[in-house]
Specification:
The complex is a heterodimer. Chain A is an alpha/beta fold. Helices cover about 35% and strands about 25% of the residues of chain A. The chains are: A alpha/beta, B mainly alpha.
């Protein structure tokens, strides 16, 4: 669906991407994307997690290369072989995550890579450095920001300002902002928007990525919607509304990956009342029943992982109470949680789920070692049998339990992590993004396993930002938004549009 | 029908591939060079000398390996060697050889446990903590005695000089410790946890394992082995000097690294360290036989260490 702009642009777009496609193995991250960014325009890109926004911005900044398609800058095709070339063409990006050097000062960070030098011996010209940095910060509306302080000592909101200053210090022709307001307070956001408008009026092309639909309508001139790697619509903001955008963001065919399950009789196993963690999430109250799969949906930063970690004792909650199997639960440590029969599958398997360099056997039994030891000595035969059983049940390939987990594919690694928690004989399974980065075949195996476990009487809390997954697996769905429980839907009532609307704060 | 091929029992946790045999090949080449360049190399006397000289570093390196596997390092081992040595020598005449040995080993273990406790409980950098305790323990040793101790107890020298057949008691103790360590690291829950901590401490913590306890035990074992090494050493020499063990930590780290250990955790094995110990021992021995001046020896050793680390790094990246 293409709308023509009211005024046809006289100049070619600053950057145009034509026919961009990128695949990772069997996963198509982008398919045939055509998108153009005009100078003097704020062009927003929206889409849910996994729609392809990150891949697209990586291609635009030269971090990765597309398989198919071409990029034109000012109407001329450019090979864009690397980030350096993109920077030289004036394409700059402000990332979601910190790219500041924490032990360097603010000014040095802003001008990283272009520190002014004196003539004599190429010493750093501190005077010029501070003048230029102050000028950039002044433009952004922060003339008072301390230049001498180490970037690592600044609060998150100020670090974000410095990140933006760093990107605009070179007068970019195209500026990409990826979720820039995540760490900012309302006042900062207003100042940022004022600056963005000034930048736009000077002719810079602005790309604005955000899941905050209000911001899109406040700031952007044009919005493009990505879904599953394709562009489903590109319209001037004035010609659409939040409902329209949401409709473009969701609405795919229901797949049959998910096992069909009977609705369990309600019998609460986990009761969470007023659980909160200052700075991370507000008081939340919900229940998970025996044999029930409760989905928890939300956008990035909505607090779901934080809730999971508190329930598992990995982080300390500030308040609230949890009742598990009729008894009050003291959430002090993972060890206590495991003893109580609660397990947490974290969202970052390589970061804190697996020990690379150790075998499948060792990884899969890491959380149940006490049950496999007698007088401190591991009963290896039994350990091997337990792991073999899980490998067979989850269809881990290759089925060699002595293999280093690092050699397994993402999907199989995830199965090993799942096996680890299954072997703890937990009765409450908290799964945080259990199929992230997992191929479709492994996904199906994991879904079948989860469904089977719930049928056998486990309580499952499924945290996911994958809408079809949440809808296909859950008996009930909780929606988190910015640290608050924004809604609770029965399976019959839930739809992709309703969930996304609730998570984005749009009335439905 | 089981899909896994029968796995032979193994002491070495990782999969063996041909690249891992490079250190073996180098060692064999080293032995060949030894035979070639020195007539005295393969004599019975020299081999027994070699064996005796590697016992000390062998025990210290084993303790160092366990600590390195947790992602840490123990710079205080040399000082603990002295602690074990002077305690053993100092107590032998008063309470008898065996009780004195027990006291020495206990002392080293306590020192190690203190290291481990401070590092694990307060999450401090092992380098700094053990650098500090290195000085503290050395100071304590000098407090205990400023001059060398030479006990007159008749059985004092047995530990370091007695032979069982052609092999010294010390060597047997060392090999026994290596076997036990291999068993510990591969067959016990705490041992597996020790290895896992070096690979991903957060994953281990989230699996409900007591990380602090495991790390403290690792440093305790290092202290124990260093003190034992010190006792055997002073028994062999017949005299305990408070300056004993100075710079021994470097040889221990070198032996571990040559054997494939990765500083920061994530690599290393008992067999590899044994190898590293013998490689270093042979290099030292050869250079002595050839009459190489001591500062040349340092240059050669340093070069060998760099080459070994390069080899290990390339193996890991492949």
């Amino acid at each position: 669906m293409r709308e023509t702009a009211v005024d046809a642009p006289a100049l070619p777009p600053v950057l145009a991407a034509q026919g961009i496609a990128k695949s990772y193995g069997a996963t198509h991250a982008l398919r045939g994307v055509d998108i153009a960014f005009q100078g003097g325009e704020v062009h927003a890109i929206v889409g849910e997690n996994g729609a392809g926004k990150s891949t697209l911005t990586h291609i635009l900044t030269g971090a990765i290369r597309a398989d198919v398609g071409r990029i034109l800058v000012d109407g001329q095709p450019v090979p864009l072989s690397g980030p350096l070339e993109a920077q030289q063409l004036g394409i700059r990006m402000v990332h979601q995550h910190d790219t500041l050097v924490p032990n360097l000062g603010v000014a040095e960070n802003i001008l990283l890579g272009q520190w002014p030098r004196r003539q004599t011996l190429r010493w750093i010209d501190w005077g010029a450095m501070h003048r230029r940095a102050a000028a950039v910060l002044g433009e952004l509306g922060y003339p008072g920001l301390p230049l001498h302080r180490l970037a690592g000592s600044l609060p998150a909101s100020q670090r974000q300002i410095v990140e933006i200053a760093k990107a605009v210090s070179v007068q970019p022709r195209m500026l990409i902002l990826d979720e820039p307001t995540a760490a900012l307070a309302q006042e900062d956001i207003s100042r940022l928007f004022a600056f963005v408008r000034r930048l736009r009026d000077r002719g810079t092309a602005i790309v604005y990525i955000s899941h905050h639909l209000d911001e899109i309508f406040e700031l952007a001139d044009r919005v493009t919607v990505l879904r599953d790697g394709s562009v489903t619509g590109s319209v001037p903001v004035a010609q659409t509304d939040k409902q329209g955008l949401i409709r473009l963001m969701v609405g795919r065919s229901i797949n049959d990956l998910h096992p069909v399950r009977a609705r369990p009789a309600p019998r609460p196993a986990l009761r969470v009342e007023g659980l909160m963690r200052v700075g991370h999430f507000e008081p939340v109250t919900f229940e998970v029943g025996v044999g029930e799969i409760v989905g928890m949906y939300g956008l990035i930063g909505s607090g779901r992982t934080e809730i999971a970690r508190c329930l598992y004792g990995a982080d300390r909650a500030s308040g609230g109470s949890v009742t598990w199997e009729g008894e009050p639960l003291a959430l002090r440590s993972p060890r206590e949680a495991l003893r109580a029969g609660i397990a947490l599958l974290t969202e970052d398997r390589l970061g804190d789920g697996l020990v690379r360099g150790m075998s499948v056997r060792d990884n899969a039994t890491l959380a149940c070692l006490p049950r496999l030891t007698r007088l401190g000595v591991l009963r290896r035969a039994e350990q091997g049998a337990w792991v073999q059983e899980q490998v067979r049940r989850l269809d881990v390939r290759p089925p060699d339990i002595e293999r280093d987990v690092a050699t397994l594919s993402g999907g199989n690694q995830q199965k090993v992590v799942l096996a680890k928690w299954l072997l703890t004989q937990a009765r409450l399974l908290i799964l945080d993004e259990p199929t992230r980065g997992v191929d479709i075949a492994a996904k199906r195996d994991i879904y079948d396993t989860i469904g089977g476990l719930a049928d056998a009487g486990l309580a499952v809390l499924l945290i996911s930002s994958d809408l079809p997954e949440v809808l296909g697996m859950s008996d009930r769905v909780l929606v988190m938004r910015e640290g608050r429980l924004a809604g609770c839907f029965d399976r019959a009532q839930a739809s992709e549009e309703r969930l996304l609307a609730c998570a984005s704060g749009v009335a439905h | 029908m089981p899909m896994t091929p029968m796995q032979p029992k193994r002491w070495i946790p990782a999969q063996l591939e041909w690249r891992e045999l490079i250190p073996v090949i180098c060692f064999v080449a080293l032995l060949a060079a030894g035979a070639l360049f020195s007539d005295a190399f393969f004599t019975e006397r020299n081999v027994s000398n070699l064996m005796r000289q590697t016992v000390a570093n062998g025990l210290i390196s084993l303790g160092m390996l366990i600590v390195i596997l947790t992602g840490g390092i123990d710079l205080s081992v040399g000082a603990v060697v002295a602690l074990g040595g002077v305690l053993f020598a100092g107590m032998a005449d008063q309470i008898g050889t065996s009780p004195a040995l027990a006291v020495a080993v206990l002392g080293g273990t306590v020192a190690g446990l203190c290291n481990g406790f401070i590092i694990a409980r307060f999450r401090l950098q092992p380098f700094i903590v053990t650098l500090a305790t290195m000085g503290i323990i050395r100071g304590v040793v000098f407090l205990y005695t400023e001059s060398p101790i030479s006990p007159t107890h008749p059985s004092f020298r047995e530990l370091g000089s007695a032979l069982i057949g052609p092999v010294s008691v010390g060597m047997l103790i060392m090999l026994g410790c290596y076997l036990l360590a291999g068993f510990y690291l591969n067959r016990t829950a705490t041992g597996r946890a020790t290895v896992a901590i070096g690979g991903n401490v957060e994953a281990v913590r989230l699996a409900g394992i007591h990380v602090e306890r495991t790390v403290t035990i690792a440093y305790g074992l290092s202290g124990m082995l260093s003190a034992l090494s010190g006792a055997i050493l002073v028994s062999r020499l017949g005299i305990a000097q408070p300056s004993l063990g100075t710079a021994y930590e470097l040889d221990a780290i070198a032996a571990c690294v040559i054997g494939g250990a990765v500083l920061g955790g994530g690599g290393g094995s008992v067999i590899g360290t044994l190898f590293g110990v013998f490689t270093l021992g042979v290099i030292n021995n050869l250079m002595n036989l050839l009459g190489v001046k001591s500062f040349y020896q340092d240059i050669v050793k340093g070069t060998v260490i760099i080459l070994a680390v390069l080899l290990v790094a390339r193996r890991r990246r492949s």
